[in-house]
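Table S2 (text version). Query chain:
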Amino acid sequence: MLAIGTALMCQPELLLVDELSQGLAPVLVEQLMERLQTIRRQLDMTVLLVEQNARMALEVADYGYVMENGRVVLDGTPARLRAHADVAEFYLGGAGARRSYRDVKQYRRSRRWYG
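Corresponding structure-token output:
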């Protein structure tokens, strides 16, 4: 919160928050996300959230990007990203049978990520 407060003192138009949940208890992460949403609404500020916890990030996002190896492989609304089979399997834990990421790599074969 101190880092976010310090950044807000500069009255930015864009607030970049990197790994908000890293190393924090789930209760604290939930409180921080609520405060971040309040800041966004009250100050009418754009917030760029970089987060590995995809489930949490998609709950608060207006738009999202999936990056792999430094490249954007899929983007869209949270509903679109949640509905994508590969996002659900690899990032949201919604898979039937477990597959190895190494065996899949369909974004290289058929660029299915982009569809």
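Notes on Table S2: Residues 86 and 113 are 8 Å apart (CA to CA). The first helix runs from residue 2 to 8.
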